[in-house]
């Protein structure tokens, strides 16, 4: 029978450690941790090596969480238009495009695995080659596989290929989370997690804590007071909504609510710091990226005006951030465009 915990100790580190050691509590904790562990990883693989960093990141995540890994290459309408072809899939097969693409990409995957000390033998098991637009293919396969995480490489424009539009399409259609890895993989020691205190952003924070526990990292939580949303116009003489509602009071209330919510949050024993800032959420997030190894956020937050903010913030951060970005999408809501 589990001993009762004194009310005065609720929420303290001692209670968390005591509960974690309780044999009746451990199964529940294990289930909670498993719920946030990525069980299936899906990596979009291109034909230019732009996705190599994403593949390396996926291999590390696979190792830490014992996830199932799938590498997916789309023979691709991002680079080739099929508008005048009656049956694109049949045309691709009949011209041998799929076979040729498979052979080339497969050899590249083998080389990546060998560079990590593997023999490359499991490349054929990991790689799947299909026909269709990358964003559509990745999203549909993610649903079919019930993938918890889609990983993408660089999104910069290269010739006819615009992986920026692929990123936008995947964010709009992905059933769960999207990881963007545009630079070489570095040890994961610090995670930045901007929140707007919505349930979606707090869910992203739960994921951040789970990754931090797995990799031994710390978490910085950033809450940005978006004061410009209270200003309707900069024209002289136009009514100032911020002044009418006492902007200082709103700012103080926002900070107090941030501190209250995070004081009640289950940190899972993860080292963390809280930061409160004012300005544009994307800009304040990007200002802090150099101090971290991963930025983790949700793709949309509150409904109404502030809700439009975090949806656009996620895409803006992913386009411009030089560090890996993991965007957690709520499965029951559509991405704000």
Please characterize this protein's 3D structure.
This protein is an alpha/beta fold and 337 residues long. The protein folds into two domains: 40-180, Rossmann fold (3-Layer(aba) Sandwich), CATH 3.40.50.620; 190-320, Rossmann fold. Helices cover 44% and strands 18% of the residues. It has 13 helices and twelve strands. It has helices at residues 13-21, 26-36, 52-65, 88-94, 97-115, 123-126, 134-145, 163-173, 199-215, 241-244, 247-263, 281-287, 305-320, and strands spanning 40-44, 68-75, 127-131, 149-152, 157-158, 161-162, 177-180, 190-194, 218-225, 272-278, 294-298, 325-328. α7 (134-145) packs parallel to α8 (163-173). Residues 1-22, 24-33, 78-85, 157-163, 301-310 and 333-337 have low confidence and may be disordered.
């Amino acid at each position: 029978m589990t001993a009762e915990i004194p009310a005065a100790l609720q929420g303290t580190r001692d209670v968390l450690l005591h509960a974690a050691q309780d044999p009746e509590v451990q199964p529940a904790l294990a289930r909670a941790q498993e719920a946030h562990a990525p069980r299936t990883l899906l990596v979009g693989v291109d034909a230019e090596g732009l996705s190599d960093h994403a593949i390396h990141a996926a291999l590390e995540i696979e190792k830490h969480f014992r996830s199932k890994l799938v590498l997916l290459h789309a023979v691709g309408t991002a680079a080739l238009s099929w508008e005048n072809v009656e049956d694109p899939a049949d045309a691709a097969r009949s011209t041998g495009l799929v076979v040729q693409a498979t052979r080339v990409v497969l050899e590249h995957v083998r080389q990546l695995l060998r560079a990590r000390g593997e023999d490359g033998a499991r490349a054929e098991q990991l790689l799947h080659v299909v026909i269709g637009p990358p964003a559509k293919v990745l999203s549909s396969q993610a649903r079919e596989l019930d993938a918890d995480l889609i990983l993408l490489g660089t999104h910069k424009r290269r010739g006819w290929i615009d992986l920026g539009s692929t990123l936008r399409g995947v964010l709009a259609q992905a059933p769960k989370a999207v990881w963007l890895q545009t630079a070489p993989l570095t040890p994961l020691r610090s995670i930045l997690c901007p929140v707007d205190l919505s349930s979606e952003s707090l869910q992203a924070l739960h994921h951040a804590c789970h990754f931090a526990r797995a990799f031994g990292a710390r978490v910085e939580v950033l809450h940005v007071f978006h004061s410009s949303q209270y200003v309707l116009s900069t024209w002289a003489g136009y009514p100032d909504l911020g002044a009418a509602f006492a902007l200082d009071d709103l700012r103080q209330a926002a900070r107090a609510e941030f501190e209250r919510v995070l004081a009640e949050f289950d940190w899972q024993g993860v080292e963390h710091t809280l930061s409160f800032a004012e300005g544009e959420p994307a800009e304040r997030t990007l200002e802090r990226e150099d101090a971290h190894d991963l930025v983790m956020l949700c793709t949309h937050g509150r409904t109404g005006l502030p809700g439009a903010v975090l949806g656009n913030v996620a895409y803006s951060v992913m386009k411009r951030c030089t560090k890996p970005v993991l965007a957690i999408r709520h499965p029951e809501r559509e991405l704000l465009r």
